[in-house]
Amino acid sequence: MNMPARALPRSLWAATACPAPAYSQAKPQLTADVAVVGGGYTGLSTALHLARKGRKAVVLEAAEPGWGASGRNGGQVIAGMKATIGDLAPLFGEDSARRMVVNMGSSAELVFSLIDRYGMNCHAIRGGWLQAAHGEKPYKETIVPRFEQWRALGVDAQLLDAHQTAAALGVDSAPYHAAWRDPRGGVLQPLSYARELARAALQEGADILPRTPVTALRRDGNAWQVTAHGTEIRAGQVVIATNAYTDGLWPGLARAAIPVTSFQMATYPLDARFDPILPVGMGVTDSRRLLLYFRRDHQRRLVMGGRSPVEDNPRFADAAPLQRAIQGLFPELGLPKPEFVWSGKVAITKDRLPHIHHPAPGLHVFMGCNGRGVGLCTMMGQLLADLADGRSAGDVPFPITVPDTFALHGLRRLGIYALSQYYRLLDQLEASGRLR
């Protein structure tokens, strides 16, 4: 089953998004080439790319498109996965690893090309992405290998020292040890992007049914029978794209990822005198295990995100750690008062990699954005559309894997808390230079 239908939670993105398009009307009986479960970036991109191939796709969303992480993330468009070719080669072989990395490296280009093609109203700016090292150890082990990989693959990446990093952030002091800059990245309004993806899919001929939670899925001969809130859909193929909000619709699938809560705050729009701080259009993520990510929005707010102190429905008081982080990075802002606070779920897999699964004939599943949702999920939608359209697994530049489930998934909250405390200690030791 999908999550029950509910209203969009209060957030900066819900308050400033473009209007939602007019969605399709449900009918008691529908037929489709492909039924897509989940109306986030992955599901919407899948439907859009299928429709462009002339396939009939129906998206079934329990709430409304963008209700989950697609409407609550930081809006940073980051090219590629966190893993390098060197990380992936022992698992999948050198050739497959290179195909994966190169393909996912074009994910930001896919996002911005779709925005251009359909004239999407989502305040997209391609101002680059900066990954900042919080100490010498992460600089050597994370920043340099990623920089060197992308430079070798032809990306005009830059390696920045501490002073260059401070200048890029618009501050006088050096809050980070170093950084690398990827010109392919940028920022956008994430809920607007989800709604505009939906509009594009509708324009191409897909159907999108909001407030239509899927309650049953079964194989019926050579097709699938999907039961969804009073609607029966018969489809040749099914794509499950529920990611961090996956439940028991398909046996065991929910245990293949841990839903981790990410928390964000947005300041009030900053005065013009603070315009040099964090140029609009550039996204920043640091190298901490409990990372910080931040950017400016189209109305000059500063948006900061990190690990959540609460599961859902955060209060303004919960923003205190992020307020202190902003003050530490940008002292001239003091302790900024939040205008918005909100949270959402990120799907983390055991190996921290995204996965495509094929658990039954005609059933395709994506799990594990692992914090790279905007670009990665858009690209995954294109790959899932190729598979559902009949392209062989060997011709898709991403491996098909078997779900690797968490044995003690029911104790995930306790495990997440314990691991978070351990990660916080390691981050502090690395930042202080005591762990090299």
From TrEMBL:
Alphabetized InterPro entries for the sequence: FAD-dep_OxRdtase (IPR006076), FAD/NAD-bd_sf (IPR036188)
Domain FAD dependent oxidoreductase: 33-387
A Pfam family it matches: DAO
Gene3D superfamilies tied to this protein: D-Amino Acid Oxidase, subunit A, domain 2 (3.30.9.10), FAD/NAD(P)-binding domain (3.50.50.60)
E.C. code: 1.-.-.-
Organism superkingdom: Bacteria
Broad EC category: oxidoreductase
Keyword S-adenosyl-L-methionine: no
GO function terms (MF aspect): oxidoreductase activity
Tagged with keyword Oxidoreductase: yes
Keyword vocabulary terms for this entry: Oxidoreductase
PANTHER family, alphabetized: FAD DEPENDENT OXIDOREDUCTASE DOMAIN-CONTAINING PROTEIN, SARCOSINE DEHYDROGENASE-RELATED
Name of the protein in its database record: FAD-dependent oxidoreductase
